[in-house]
Design a protein that fits this description.
Helix 9 packs across helix 10, helix 11 runs antiparallel to helix 12 and helix 15 packs antiparallel against helix 16. Helix content is 61%, strand content 8%. It is built from 16 helices and five strands. By secondary structure, it is of the alpha/beta class. The protein has a five-stranded parallel beta sheet with strand order 2-3-4-1-5, with helices on both faces. The protein has two domains: 166 residues, P-loop containing nucleotide triphosphate hydrolases (Rossmann fold), CATH 3.40.50.300; 122 residues, Zinc Finger, Delta Prime, domain 3, CATH 1.20.272. The structure holds zinc ion. Zinc ion binds next to helix 4. Keywords: DNA-directed DNA polymerase, Nucleotidyltransferase, Transferase. Pfam families: DNA_pol3_delta2. GO terms for molecular function: DNA-directed DNA polymerase activity.
Length: 330
């Protein structure tokens, strides 16, 4: 994210608040950025920092070309600090070292910005060290604490920072970010963003081939259903069960099927529907959209019921066999 204009597209309130403080030059000494997707929070923090450091800032937006902007982009700006958990926690020593560096470099009035990612992982001792610093921050120093679990921050920390709550990130956007990060195609990243509740899990899935193969199996299953419904049980036995072995995998497989049926239904109801997930399989989606709306709705309900059974600990194989029986009935 390079501009506040971009940030504004999804986080208009946050963008307005940050913009205002830049325009009026009223910068707090501590901010707490909270929201469900930390990478976006971090990008917003870096953008804010970049604007604050920019030597030729036009009111709000960083110029992108001055020495500071270029150093910020390459991660070489010495007055920008960023710390993250060392293992499971952020330790007191990490905060003390940060404070030491800040005091060593910081001449009075010089701008220094430090970002603490996953700040809810600070140990109580680390949080207390930070709190001491908050009491006498010195001019020009700005803290940005990032967290997706603000309730785990010490109340004293929370009360001293300006809390900025980001809107829940939209899945389309997350899909795009994941696509840039992992190099996977947009369809696959949209699917991962849909079926994995946690972004970290989606990202992990995208680097493994299992998820790529899972999409292939789902599309094969849909082909069978469209063209050879009588062969469904055989397909499940020979292919499906070896791809989706355990309960977790079975759930992912069924969620992927759910997304497919949703696409079929969306396209049927509105042929110019743009935001389909299985964008690469439009012909198959349209072919299946040739079925009646009742049939498609039944398919969708059958697979949703199967997901529920998996979650209720019914055996995955039995669940899928029953699902195939329901799908065949149409
Ligand atoms: Zn600049």
């Amino acid at each position: 994210m390079q501009t506040f204009h971009e940030l504004e597209q999804t986080q208009s309130v946050i963008a307005t608040i940050l913009r205002n403080s830049l325009q009026t030059n009223r910068i707090n000494h501590a901010y707490i950025f909270t929201g469900d997707y930390e990478p976006l929070l971090l990008e917003a923090a870096q953008l804010f920092a970049k604007s604050l450091f920019c030597e030729r800032r036009d009111q709000i937006e960083p110029c992108q070309t001055c020495r500071s902007c270029r150093r910020m982009d390459s991660g070489n700006l010495v007055d920008y600090y960023q710390i993250e958990p060392d293992g499971a926690t952020i330790k007191k020593e990490q905060i003390q070292e940060l404070m030491h560096d800040l005091s060593l470099r910081g001449l009075e009035g010089d701008r220094q910005i430090y970002v603490v990612t996953q700040s809810h992982k600070m140990t109580p001792q680390a949080a207390n060290s930070l709190l001491k610093f908050f009491e006498e921050p010195g001019a020009g120093k700005v803290a940005i604490l990032i967290t997706n679990q603000p309730q785990l921050l010490l109340p004293t920390i929370r009360s001293r920072g300006q809390l900025l709550s980001f809107r829940p990130a939209d899945r389309l956007l997350i899909g795009q970010v994941l696509s840039e990060k992992t190099g996977r195609d947009n369809e696959l990243t949209q699917l991962a963003a849909r079926v994995y509740p946690k972004i970290e899990d989606a990202e992990q899935a995208l680097v493994e081939d299992w998820f790529v193969n899972a999409r292939v199996s789902v599309l094969q299953l849909m082909e069978e259903l469209a063209n050879r419904p009588a062969d469904l049980p055989l397909f499940v036995q020979e292919k499906w069960m070896s791809q989706f072995k355990n309960r977790q995998d079975a759930r992912i497989g069924l969620e992927l099927v759910t997304c497919f049926f949703e696409d079929v239904l969306h396209l049927k109801l509105n042929p110019s529907w743009e935001t389909i997930t299985y964008a690469n399989s439009r012909p198959l989606l349209e072919q299946m959209g040739g079925k009646s709306q009742t049939t498609i709705t039944r398919w969708l309900q059958a697979v949703l019921a199967a997901v529920k059974r998996i979650e209720a600990n019914v055996n995955p194989q039995l669940t899928v066999e029953r699902l195939m029986f329901d799908l065949q009935k149409g």
